[in-house]
Structure formats: C-alpha cells, structure tokens
Design a protein that fits this description.
Elements lengths: L1 E5 L6 E4 L14 E3 L4 E14 L2 E15 L6 E9 L15 E7 L2 E2 L10 E8 L4 E6 L1 E4 L5 E6 L6 E2 L5 E4 L8 E6 L3 H4 L4 E12 L7 E11 L9 H7 L6
Antiparallel strand pairs: 1-2, 3-4, 4-5, 5-6, 7-8, 7-9, 9-15, 10-16, 11-12, 11-16, 12-13, 14-15, 16-17
Length: 247
C-alpha cells in the first residue's frame, strides 16, 4: 500500500506499507514465496513529470522485501531498493544550470535589432553550463495578453515545430550546444502596431555524460523590438483617409 504522497515543488515522496494479511492471498503478482511462510515481496514504482499530455521524464525504483512469518512473527530483512538509471530524475542534485537566449545569425549572438514586417526572426538557445545540453523545449512569441504564437512545442522524443515555416537547427563543432530557431513574426503583431514582442519558453536540460541522474526544467525569456507600421488605424479607415474624408 502506497500512502502519504507529497508532491511539493521540486520533490516527491511517498510511504510504502506491507500488509502481511494479504500475503497469503496474493496470486504471485507481488509475493514470491520461498516456502509456506517465507519469501519476497517485489514491486516497482514510477514517478513521472508531465508537460500537458507529454511525459517528459521518469524515475523507476524496484523494491524487494524479504519476509518470514515463522514463529508467528512478521519480520522484514535484507530490504533491497534499486533505482533505475535510464530516464532517472534525481531530485537531490543541485546544479546551477540554465539557458541563455539571444538574437543570432548563423548560431552567433548579435545585437538586438528591431524586426521589420515580413521578416524572419532568429533566436539561439544555449545552456549556461557546458556540462548540460538541451533535449526538449518549447518556444512562444506574444505581446502580453493580446495574442500568442507557438512555433515550437514539446514533443514525445524532442521538440516539434508546429508549422512548415519554422526551422530548428542544432549547431556543430564549437556551437554544438546551441539550438537556433528561425520563424516568421506573424502579421498580427504589426497590424496591432506593437513596439515589442516577448520571446519565451521552457527547456529540458540533461547532463551530457549520461552518468549523472539529472534533469531540469528552466525558463527563458527576452524582448525584441518591432519596426512599427502604424497599421492599427485599420485598412478601411486608411482607405477613406486617402480621399480626404473625415472618419
């Protein structure tokens, strides 16, 4: 029986109780008898993290409890607990890891430049620690609560673009830790005459060596200016204004 589950931020804990009264009636699902009164109770647990409907990471733990019911006593001995290493999520590892976003060209950061209408935006993401790499991420462009555009989303086996106009590339050589996103700035932001757009998202980081059980979510965010067009007055109003009519 698993009880007292605590899923407070950045930790997960639970208690496991063995109900000895159920040992005799278990149909060899959890109980593996060595004799009429002794044997082992075996089971496993899985703790998973999710982003919406996508399972991002998991930690599996295998338990083996040896029991002895002889002499009318319930005794546990030689308890074995084995943590799976694959996709393991170690909540006790503290790493000052993060991700740095920047406007870029060919994987090199450049000074922030306002984006003109009908232009593509290029953003690079790079882990702040050379020992980590990005395995999954999402990417959003918005202008407050007015409108948001999500060209990249979390996927089951890595990031996924949501439209054919968006391209995600991984760097090579000295830029092997970087990811570059190229996507259009949709017309809505120019029609509404926004001066600034927000670029934000979350990344999933893991250690490169694969030996340390570490996985972490980190958020990134930056702002980029737009070349204003003055379109907010509306197409019909601008058409009438060209004929000198008051509107």
């Amino acid at each position: 029986m698993i009880s007292n589950i605590d899923d407070s931020p950045r930790s997960f804990s639970y208690e496991i109780d063995i109900l000895e009264s159920n040992i005799g009636s278990d149909p060899e699902v959890f109980v593996y008898a060595s004799g009429p009164s002794n044997g082992e109770v075996k089971f496993c647990t899985r703790v998973s993290t999710w982003e919406g409907s996508i399972q991002i990471a998991m930690r599996e733990t295998q338990f083996t409890f040896r029991y002895d019911l002889r002499n009318n006593n319930f005794a546990m001995s030689l308890v074995s607990i084995t943590n799976a290493t694959r996709h393991a999520l170690d909540t006790f590892v503290e790493v000052d890891a993060g991700v740095f976003p920047c406007q870029c060209s060919n994987f090199e950061c450049v000074s922030s430049t306002p984006i003109a209408q009908n232009s593509m935006i290029e953003i690079c993401l790079e882990p702040t620690k050379s020992t980590t790499h990005i395995t999954n991420f999402d990417f959003k462009i918005d202008a407050g609560t007015d409108y948001s555009y999500n060209p990249v989303a979390f996927g089951t086996n890595g990031w996924e673009t949501t439209n054919s106009a968006t391209v995600v590339r991984e760097g090579e050589g000295a830029n092997s830790d970087k990811i570059m996103i190229t996507t259009p700035v949709v017309p809505h932001f120019f029609i509404e005459n926004h001066a600034v757009i927000n670029v934000s998202g979350n990344v999933f980081l893991e250690f490169k060596d694969g030996k340390t059980n570490f996985a972490d979510f980190e958020m990134y965010e930056m702002q980029i200016g737009l070349v204003q067009t003055g379109y907010r007055m509306g197409c019909l109003k601008r058409l009438f204004s060209r004929f000198g009519l008051n509107f």
